[in-house]
Amino acid sequence: MRVLLVEDQLEMVAALRAALTRHDIIVDHASNLSEAEAIVAEGTYDAVVLDRQLPDGDGLSLIPKLRASGNIVPVLVLTARGDLADRVEGLDKGADDYLAKPFAFEELLARLRALLRRPANVQSDIVRVGRISFDFAHREASIEGRHLEMPRRELLVLEALLRRMGRMVQRSSLMEAVFGLDDEVQPNALDTHISRLRRKLGDANAGVTINGIRGVGYLLRETP
Fold first, then answer.
1. Alpha helix (H) residue ranges in 22-170
2. Residue 169 DSSP label
3. Cβ(218)–Cβ(208) below 8 Å
4. Is-contact 127 135, C-beta < 8 A?
5. Which of 136, 127, 132, 107 shows the shortest CA–CA distance to 46?
6. What's the distance, CA 85 to chain centroid?
7. Which of 33, 60, 84, 164 could form a disulfide with 93 if both were Cys (CB 3.0 to 4.6 A apart)?
8. Nearest residue to 134 (alpha-carbon basis) of 164, 168, 173
9. Strand pairing category for 97-100 and 126-129
10. Does residue 78 contact residue 111 with C-beta atoms inside 8 Å?
11. Model confidence, pTM
């Protein structure tokens, strides 16, 4: 999963980035509204974690701009203002959820999971393709009930392909799903992860194949 964190307090950013990364969530960061608008226009995100008090205005002003452009990404608003009127204002402006500071990280993570586990094109938390089952809520893969162990980035590639099952996923979309903006990525890094994932799925007799068009993207299909 990929999250855009819009927050100007660097200590908060560092703490949230570290905690979310431990749960296999890729975190990109914007410190103000202008930066957030530019970043979200260039990338695809599964959620936006948005602080209200930003140097160049109220974070809520970002939400109508997102919606006007057709972007329906879920928005979780963070704020030091916890009274009822402020929560109502945030929800009325289009926020999907609202969390008052200070908060427990476990609650933030639970609220993010509730937003992230309902992708528009997946009707269940668990999808079954071939002999493989993938639990989106817990990000776990299994073969007929047997847990399939794999490194984090390969798991993220598999998740991205399963979310667009049977359709070509462009390299740029896979890169966004797997790597953060601040990651130092080698030119062939994605291909290396794809190759390892193919081998792992083949060894496990998963009943799926990963096909690719060089330089364009990849798609996952059930084997005949």
1. 33-42, 62-68, 84-92, 105-116, 152-163
2. E
3. no
4. no
5. 136
6. 30
7. 60
8. 164
9. unpaired
10. no
11. 0.58
Closest CA to 32 of 66, 65, 57, 67: 57
Tokens found for residue 80: 């030091």
Structure tokens at 149: 């162990």
What residue has token string 């009707």? 123
Strands 75-79 and 97-100: parallel
Phi, psi for 103 (deg, rounded to 5): -135, 160
C-beta of residue 52 within 8 angstroms of C-beta of residue 77: yes
With cut-offs at 50, 70 and 90, classify the pLDDT of residue 123. Answer: very low
Length of the chain: 224
Tens-digit pLDDT profile for residues 79-118: 876 667 777 777 777 888 888 888 889 999 888 888 876 5
* Rounded Cα–Cα distance for residues 215 and 210 (Å): 15
